[in-house]
Amino acid sequence: MSVPSFSADLMARTEPLYERVKAFIPSIEWPAFADDIEAILRLKRERNAVILAHNYQTPEIFHCVADIVGDSLALAREATKVDAATIVLAGVHFMAETAKLLNPGKRVLIPDLHAGCSLAESITPADVRLMRQRYPDVPVVTYVNTSAAVKAESDICCTSGNARKIVESLGVPRVIMLPDEYLAQNIARETGVEIIAWAGHCEVHERFTADDIRQLRDGHPGVIVLAHPECPPEVVAEADFAGSTAAMADYVGRERPARVALITECSMSDNVAVEHPEVEFVRPCNLCPHMKRISLARIRHALETMTHEVTIDPAVAGPARQAVERMLAA
């Protein structure tokens, strides 16, 4: 049966984009994606908009419509350089809030208001205030995976990519680090700083175990294991390397391991594999249900309707912005 003419035309126009992701998207599914992709590319021009996409977005978003991609630190940095009037954040809500904090005069859209984060939901501003009361004069370092309201109660923010640098930059023997307990424990081991942690966990990374890593090595001899520092310390201890998603991607590009496993969210391996087809990726991944709420169709709808716009109370935005800017300046 011949392909309908509109689908054949669409395939021809979008073939260069499909070449990038064909290892992950069957050709029979591409016309449905391509229609949204063409619309998004057109709408970006019409709306003077850019799309910032986190490393956990699916390949058709990451490689076909995004203008800026990266981990939370990279997106925070690049958000300050955006010239467009509108930013669409293909990620979760705290990332959109961070983009808005750094671009108060721009419109920031999140394609799905329910794209949340287990870490961000694990702590409230009141919790931070109670921690300050319990540990007076101890600086509060808050992970970017938090709401703007929590950031506003903090001294400085960090990401998984710069957490060690931020903690060490304070020059103090004791730090409150919120809300990721495992990240705090991993950084404490690296720095020797006493870190008071909060019992928040990433629902993707907390499910990995040290036994998973040992079984992975048994089943895939010679595999190089890269773990995210949101994983439990015993998982990080079993890995060959631990770092942010950006650090993982850099490692693969620099070392070119024959076989590698990224102990993190599912789409990360797909997105890095596009750039390194010579590397075999073993994929023991866990899915982030929040990241997967973002789709091409929802990005298209966001640009068509200019929804959902992220707003932050000015009383919260001021101190929250200061905490993020301190991180970027450190």
Mean pLDDT: 95
Strand order of the largest sheet: 2-1-3-4
Query: How far is the N terminus from the C terminus?
Result: 61 Å
The CATH homologous superfamily of the largest domain: NadA-like
Number of domain modules: 3
The major beta sheet can be summarized as: 4 strands, parallel
**Assigned CATH class of the largest domain:** Alpha Beta
Number of strands: 12
CATH architecture of the largest domain: 3-Layer(aba) Sandwich
What is the beta-strand fraction? 5-15%
Oligomer: single chain
**How would the global form be characterised?**
globular
Strand-pairing-aware structural class: alpha/beta
Number of helices: 15
CATH fold descriptor of the largest domain? Rossmann fold
Report Rg: 20 Å
Low-confidence stretches: 1-5
Order of helices and strands: HHEHEHEHEHEHEHEHEHEHEHEHEHH
Instruction: Please bin the fraction of helical residues.
Output: 40-55%
Describe what you observe in this structure.
- The chain is an alpha/beta fold and 330 residues long.
- It has 3 domains: 127 residues, 3-Layer(aba) Sandwich (Rossmann fold); 83 residues, NadA-like (Rossmann fold, 3-Layer(aba) Sandwich), CATH 3.40.50.10800; 78 residues, NadA-like (Rossmann fold, 3-Layer(aba) Sandwich).
- The strands form 3 sheets. A 4-stranded parallel sheet has the order 2-1-3-4, with helices on both faces.
- Helix 2 packs parallel to helix 14 and helix 4 packs parallel to helix 5.
Briefly say what this structure is.
Helices cover 46% and strands 14% of the residues.
